[in-house]
Amino acid sequence: MTNLQGTVAVVTGGGRGIGREIALHQSRGGAKVAVLARTTREIEETAGLIGQEGGTAIAVAVDLVDTAAVEKALQNVVDALGEIDTLVNNHGSFRAFGPIWECDPQIWWGDVEINLRGTFNTSRVAAPAMLARGRGRIVNLVGGGTGTSFPNGSGYAASKAAIMRFTECLDDTTKAGGVRAFAVDPGLVRTAMTELQLNSDAGKAHLPNIQQLFDDGINVPPSRAAALIADIAAGRFDALAGRMLRGVDDRDSLERDMEAIAAQDGRALRISSLDLQSL
Questions:
Q1: Of which family is this protein a member (predicted)?
Q2: Is 156 among the catalytic positions?
Q3: Residue 21 · residue 229 · CB < 8 Å
Q4: What is Dmax (Cα atoms) for the chain?
Q5: Distance between CA 93 and CA 13 in Å, rounded?
Q6: Is this structure's pTM higher than 0.90?
Q7: pLDDT for 201-246, tens place per residue?
Q8: Neighbours of 55 (CB within 10 A)
Q9: Of all helices (H) and strands (E), which one includes residue 36?
Q10: C-alpha 181, offset from chain centre
Q11: How many helices (H) and strands (E) in the chain?
Q12: Higher pLDDT, 8 or 200
């Protein structure tokens, strides 16, 4: 088990699915965990599960789009558990399916705002405190559309690509001060979000490939991303800070390949060298 003794972790979107598994893995490694989301019942359930296993956790209900609320929530975490060592931005919204002219503009923008602004809001509070202590890790979850087109999922894809670039910028800004940022793609996991894609009329009409992927047996256990993030929190993959790691990765192979990935500038958003020559 990864050793996270003496650390404090914050997990957003921690009330269910991938976020709950991340929170449990952080606790099993020895971290004290703050579970954040809007739905009080769900985050209290996660905190309760951690308590049943002998861990320490608190549930903090917060709207991550509300800047002042995020500031207050993270201060409450520090007051209750201590300074934050690991921030995991797992929260996500994907409700706008279809061509942009068929999407409700408010729902489309809501996906972008929750995903991107929520990540910005937590990071802007946590990073300075981490820098003051000379250590810390921020993990931002990305996903479909990060590096490729996502037809009929443009809001989600745009937000995730932006989070990837945000992660790179953040890491380049903070790494000299001992704070590292990572992006993690958990892979296709069956969650409440994918259930909406599978069962809503808009999802069936515009994202039929999601059902096909599940039918083909592609369903990554949430424990894969959770175990990876626990290793990130422990420092195992610091050489890949600023880059994207994946839940489907074999972690031992990833560790062996770290130097080569960094040397090739892999796992990052980049314009090809050929394109750069034409600029």
A1: Belongs to the short-chain dehydrogenases/reductases (SDR) family.
A2: yes
A3: no
A4: 59
A5: 10
A6: yes
A7: 888 888 888 888 888 888 889 999 999 999 999 999 999 999 999 9
A8: 19
A9: strand 32-37
A10: 11
A11: 13, 7
A12: 8
More confidently predicted of 207 and 22 = 22
> Which one from 156, 166, 182, 237 is the annotated catalytic residue?
156
Q: Mark 170-208 as b/e (b = at least 16 C-beta within 10 Å).
A: bbeebeebebbbbbbbbbbbbbebbeebeeeebbeebbe
What residue spans define the domains of the chain? 8-268
Distance between CA atoms of 182 and 172, rounded to whole angstroms? 11
According to CATH, the superfamily of the domain at 8-268 is: NAD(P)-binding Rossmann-like Domain (3.40.50.720)
Cα–Cα distance measured from residue 162 to residue 140, given in angstroms and rounded to the nearest whole number: 11
Token representation of residue 18: 């991938």
Q: Which two tokens stand for residue 272?
A: 């090809």
Higher pLDDT, 131 or 276: 131
Torsion of CA 52, 56, 62, 65, to 10 degrees: -110
Q: 272: phi > 0 → left, psi -120 to 50 → alpha, else beta; which?
A: beta
pLDDT, tens digit (0-9, with 9 covering 90-100), for 95-152: 999 999 999 999 999 999 999 999 999 999 999 999 999 999 999 999 999 999 999 9
